[in-house]
Amino acid sequence: TVVFVSGATGFIALHVVDDLLKTGYKVIGSGRSQEKNDGLLKKFKSNPNLSMEIVEDIAAPNAFDKVFQKHGKEIKVVLHIASPVHFNTTDFEKDLLIPAVNGTKSILEAIKNYAADTVEKVVITSSVAALASPGDMKDTSFVVNEESWNKDTWESCQANAVSAYCGSKKFAEKTAWDFLEENQSSIKFTLSTINPGFVFGPQLFADSLRNGINSSSAIIANLVSYKLGDNFYNYSGPFIDVRDVSKAHLLAFEKPECAGQRLFLCEDMFCSQEALDILNEEFPQLKGKIATGEPGSGSTFLTKNCCKCDNRKTKNLLGFQFNKFRDCIVDTASQLLEVQSKS
Ligand code: NDP
Q1: C-alpha 152 – ligand 1 centre gap (Å)
Q2: Local structure of residue 187 (DSSP, 8 states)
Q3: Best mutation site among 5, 6, 12, 35 for ligand 1 pocket (most ligand atoms within 8 Å of CB)
Q4: What is the ipTM score, two decimals?
Q5: Full domain range(s) for residue 112
Q6: Cα 152 to Cα 130: distance, rounded to the nearest angstrom
Q7: Structural domains counted in the chain
Q8: What are the CA-CA distances from residue 66 to residues 85, 109, 181 (Å)?
C-alpha cells in the first residue's frame, strides 16, 4: 500500500514516516525543497520504500496537482500533515490562515481530480485548536470533546498570532469536512482527523534540534536552558506524546471504525510548572541551574486556569494507552541534554 505524507520533514511527520516504513508501507513524502528532501532520504538511509516530491508552498493554488498527476494511481492513503506552525508573523492571513486552508483544499481537489478511484483514506492532522479557542481553553467550566468546535470567526481569530494559528486549524479542518459533504458523488475516500493537544517528545533524528526546532518542542527546550531565577511562561493545555500521535495516524486509516471520526489526542492536562518539577526531580545535572517556579503548584494552576478534556471516545476507538507526561518529558530532555553535551 502506498501512503502519501505531506510535510514529511516536520517533527510529527518524521515519526509517522518512520512508523509507516517499519510497518511495511511504501511512502511518498512531500517537502519544500530538493535540499530538504535529499536530507530526509539520507536520514532514512535511502530506504527503497521511501521517495520524495517537492511541494514548495501549500498556499499556492493547485499545489498538489503535480504530485497527484504523477502518483495518483498508486496512492491509497493520504496523510495531510503540512501546515504552518509558528507565531512570528503579523500577517496572519498570508502566513497562517491561507496556507492552512488552501493546502487542505488543494490536496483534496488533487485527489478528486487525479486519484478519485484510488485514494480510499484521508487523514488530516488538525489540532485541539480546531476544537477550542484560546479563550475556551482557559475557561474552567468548559469541557472539550470530539464534538467541540473553536467558535472564533475568520475575523475574531486574528486578534493575535496564537488565536490566528488556532483559527487556521479550525478553518482548515472545516474545509475538509465541507469538501467531503459537497463531493460525496465524485470521491470514494473516508476522512478522519487527528486533533492533538500540545505535542512533546524526542525528535526522530536528534540533529533536528540543531537546525531550527519546531514550535511545541521549543517549549521544553527553553525550560531545559532557562537560567535560575528566570521567569517562565506557564504554558498549559492538553498534552500528548509525539510517538502516540504517530501511532494514531496509522490507526486512523487502518481501523475501519476511525473513518469519519475526529480523534482528540490528550493524555492529560499539563503546564510548564509540572515539566519544570519533572526536570528538577529527574535530572540532577539541572537541579540548581534551571528555574524552579513554585514546585508542586502545577495541579492547582490547572484547576484555576484550564478547561477540562473528555476524549473517552477517542481512547476507545484507538485502544492503546498513551505515554505519560513524566516519561515524555524525561525522554525529550535526555535527547536535548545529549545533543547539548556534544556541541
Ligand atoms: P513542524 O513545523 O515540524 O511541521 C510542519 C510541516 O509543515 C513542516 O514540514 C513544514 O515545512 C510544513 N509547512 C509549513 N508551512 C508550509 C507551506 N506553506 N508550504 C509547504 N509546507 C509547509 O510542526 P509539527 O510537526 O508540530 O506539526 C505538524 C502538524 O501537526 C501541523 O498540521 C500542526 O498544525 C499539527 N499540530 C501540531 C501540534 C504540536 O504541538 N506540535 C499540536 C496539534 C497539531 P518546513 O519546516 O520546511 O517549513
Answers
A1: 21
A2: -
A3: 12
A4: 0.99
A5: 2-200+239-267
A6: 10
A7: 1
A8: 24, 12, 25
